[in-house]
Amino acid sequence: MLIGIDVGGTTTDAVLIRNGEVYSTAKVSTERGNLLKSLLRALDDVSRGVSPEELERVVFSTTVITNLIAEGKTDRVALLLIPGPGVNPESYIFPDSFYLKGAMDYRGREIQHLDEDDVRETVSRIMEQGFSRVAVVSKFGQRNPAHEFRIKEILREMHPGCKVELGHKVSGKLNFPRRIATSMLASATGERYREFVAEIKKALEERKIRAPVYILKADGGTLPIEKSIEFPVETIFSGPAASTIGALALTPEGHTSVVVDIGGTTTDLALILSGKPLVASKGAKLGNFLTHVRAFAVRSIAVGGDSIVRVRETDRGTKITIGPERAGPAYCMGGKEPTPTDALRVLGLVEVGDPERAKEAIASVASSLGKPGTETASLIVDITAGMIEKAVREMFLEWEQEPAYRIWEVLQKKKERPENVVGIGGGAKGLISAVAEKLNAKPIIPRHSEVGNAIGAAVARPTLTLNLRIDTQLKVYSVAEDGEIVSLNSTDIGNFNKMRSEEAEALAKELLRDRAKRFGISEYADEAEISNSEVFNVVEGWFTAGRLFDVSMQIPAGLIPEWRREKV
Question: How many CB atoms lie within 10 A of CB 567?
């Protein structure tokens, strides 16, 4: 049996899957101040009557990291940055930044020694200012982390209790500002996330649940909960990832669809192209910061089933507005304000809550407009659907700039937008048809769509990335995620200077297989694919002195084999 739990802004959904099919579901209200309590209530509800020994896998999709960042509850972090020559520190907007002298070049060769006196002076300043967490990031630290390691040693010597995050461990990709942002957020949320994981493990032990436990990541893949402690920031946006994988699981293989996940507080948008979720090439964006967190190309808009419906007077007359605020559940569910859910209940498009209270809520809006209740309910639904449709059209302008989307268009041999709109979430049944009609698309509301996020969490398979850099002239290679520089003499490759791309890619596959084994996900290693492979000649004195290989590999997002696809 498999369990998937998704902690949303309004409800926490859970699903129990048995023999590849949905066996039971549960929904509880999310307590924003105590996500763990909501999560465990949903777990207890969905697994009631099931022996812990029967459980084979438990996956959580959580907003812990996202909420910490959005609510400003992260820990203070001192950033020790080594930008090297050619970078103006004043162009950065990172708070609590300290700049150090030293530099590596793009191949990882030291071109400026680390100024250790400067480092020690800076550490003293950090201690005086009360920092207990530090992120150390050098511009080409992923090519040679020696300076980052040395600074960590000095921190350990001078400030033993300090928590240190190294940039090359957080991200192996180029782009210094994004690596800084990712490292900063990883450090700022790490301790709180570690506490959250410890509480989950304790709660599962109390329930005698010994099944493997995973966390859903922003790229739609799962990560063993123990390993997720090392990469907490990768769990941001796991909610939109869950809805995307849920849509993938609940629709026929190979479909191309816009995914619209309508929750109580927000609506999340994503895109599936020929059965593959679209990944953001620039990484996840948090506030003003672009990061190196691999994530689906998604957007959240502040409109949902429980958004407040108001009537406002404007220069052009009386106008209905939807959201962005939410003041609790819909009026028909015991709330205090009229909402789109009340309108859907009046029109008979959903079967939730008290129909009389729904009529009362819509009547209060209708009286201000001077319109009948049913007409007002239809107008509210139309406005809500129009807001979602507008957001989808705006999102397409971003999606069309993604390399993967352009490749998909080339393969289609014509410029064509997806024909399906797949509805996920509690508000899908009432709104998706209206949204799809405005987009001139086919509405699809799969069976179990109301718990599609939880299904997505339950059936998502692990993902893993690896970035390999080979320098045949220096006779070394490095895996950015591991931070080690290894001699090519340790490999089976013979003549380094005549190395071909095929040999570099074979080494990357071997190394990813080893990495997958360390992560406990070896069974998916053979499904790894190359996402980028480049080779450059090193020319000195008109002759080729060596070659540089950059190979990126990934185990892509997908579904575990235990899941049986639902029929639409």
Answer: 9
Q: What does 48-74 look like in DSSP terms, one character per residue?
A: TT--GGG--EEEEE--HHHHHHHTT-P
- The count of domains in the chain is 3
411 plus 478 within the same structural domain? no
Cα-based angle 222, 226, 227 (whole degrees, multiple of 5): 60
Q: For residue 179, give the nearest of 94, 61, 111 by alpha carbon.
A: 94
Residue range(s) defining the domain that contains residue 487: 464-555
Within a domain: 381: yes
**How would you write 481-518 as a 3-class SS string?**
CCCEEEEHHHCCCCCHHHCCHHHHHHHHHHHHHHHHHH
- Has residue 9 been placed in a domain? no
* Predicted TM-score of the model (pTM): 0.86
pLDDT reported for residue 494: 63
Q: What is the pLDDT of residues 213-252, one digit of tens each?
A: 999 999 999 999 988 888 888 888 888 899 999 999 998 8
Angle at 234 between CA 230 and CA 238, to 5 degrees: 135
Question: pLDDT digit string (tens) for 546-559?
Answer: 899 999 999 999 99
* Model confidence at 415: pLDDT above 80: no
- DSSP secondary structure letter of residue 449: G
Collapsed DSSP state (helix, strand, coil) of residue 24: strand
Tokens standing for residue 113? 């020694």
Cα–Cα distance, 362 to 365 (Å, whole number): 5
Degrees, nearest 5: CA angle 400-296-258: 60
259 domain residue, yes or no? no
Residue 375 lies in a domain: yes
Amino acid at 142: Q
Is the same domain home to 433 and 312? yes
Q: What 8-state DSSP symbol labels residue 166?
A: E
Q: Cα(223)–Cα(229) distance, rounded to whole angstroms?
A: 10
Residues paired with residue 215 on neighbouring β-strands, in sequence order: 60, 223
Q: Are both 412 and 380 inside the same structural domain?
A: yes
